[in-house]
Amino acid sequence: MKRMRCLVYCIVVTSVMIGLMDVPSVLAGHNPPKGPEEFNGLQFKKQDAKKAEGECEAGGAPLPEFSPTVRDGEPNLALLKDAKPEASSVIAGWCPQRHCTEYLNDGFYNNCRSWIIGAIPGWAQIDIGTIATVNRVFLGSEHAPFWKDRFLTDFDILVATETADKDSAAKTWKKVLTYDKAGAPISETTEFKFKETEARWVRIHIRANDGARIDEIEIYGGQNPLAVEPVGKLTTTWSRIKAEK
């Protein structure tokens, strides 16, 4: 009898514990504090959580969460005050409650603060506002998985310094990374590293998966990514000195 009571008690306790663990395990490591509004003289977009939550029709999904203004001691170039988002298309009938182009870099994760593409193939991009050094991008479908759909499976990361041609095949675009693993869809926020390069525009060109979603694009390039001009100027100066001799 005692063994039976113990068994029942253990089952109940275990069930309760599993029930309690289910909620935080889904959101483990989430709900980070708001990041700094300025870093090394760079100013970031305002992140008004109350406004974001008020505009959000979550449908039971997680509410907006802060995306970082600074990650690993580096500024998020996509969240610079003057950085601008643009997309080739957007799913109809949802904005402003969900899935707007401006939500690509509004400083908040999750479904109701995401962008969803309309026509495939297509793209989403960030204009940093100035030429910067970039070497990694973070993006995902849902930072806190809930709907578990609209994954990214087949895309390129492109950069440009001169102009953001609407045609991703234009010569002004440079491909820095290709992801085409249909069996490994990108759901949660994922880091993509590539060789250090200069860019003003960073584009995610999506080739497949109709209805792909991006809840936030983050762009990084080191602690001082905007210091890209002096090297070019120094080279020009030495060239002129040599020519004059």
Query: Which H/E pattern describes the elements?
Result: HEEHEEEEEEEEEEEEH
The rounded distance between the terminal residues' Cα atoms is 102 Å
Q: What is the mean pLDDT?
A: 84
* Amount of helix: 10-25%
How would you characterize the overall build of this protein?
With 245 residues, the chain is of the alpha+beta class. It has one domain: Galactose-binding domain-like (Jelly Rolls). It is built from 3 helices and 14 strands. It has helices at residues 2-26, 49-55, 229-244; strands at residues 38-39, 42-43, 65-66, 70-71, 74-75, 84-87, 108-109, 115-116, 122-139, 155-160, 174-179, 190-206, 213-214, 218-220. Strands 6, 9, 10, 11, 12 and 14 form a 6-stranded antiparallel beta sheet that branches. A hairpin with a 2-residue loop joins strand 1 and strand 2 (42-43). Residues 1-28 and 230-245 have low confidence and may be disordered.
Key words describing this protein structure:
alpha+beta; Jelly Rolls; 6-stranded antiparallel beta sheet; 14 strands; 20% helix; 29% strand; disordered C terminus
